[in-house]
Fold:
Amino acid sequence: MFDKAVNKRVKLFLENKEISQEQFKKDISVKSKQQVSNWINCNEKIPERHLFTMIHIYKDLNARWLITGEGEMNEPEGKDIVIHDGQTIFADNVGQYGGKGNVIGKQAPAEDSSLKKMVELKDMEIDLLKKTIEQKDKMIEKLLDK
Structure:
């Protein structure tokens, strides 16, 4: 079983922005509309790579809200915050780094930028990495039990 809250927030975001499932499928490069439907109807967990893609494509989507439910759904325009080769980079376009690196959020406009925001985003990245480790540990356990 998985926590369906993220799926519900994705559905809420798409409804709020009037983005159809077909358009969403195209935006995040998913081949099957059924896959999107499964996510929206909370039948399957949305893979983290697709959440990262959403955060990158929909510039006003608040990454913290999407992942944790904290804060507002919409975030003011700002630069992407990208983890690339272990370093945090503020980028207008992830493509300038060869499309490599994980987009973990948005840089707040200059007047709102603060160390606190960076710490929150790092905490979010750590939480996502912990979840990934837990999933991989479970897979290893299953393989060792066979």
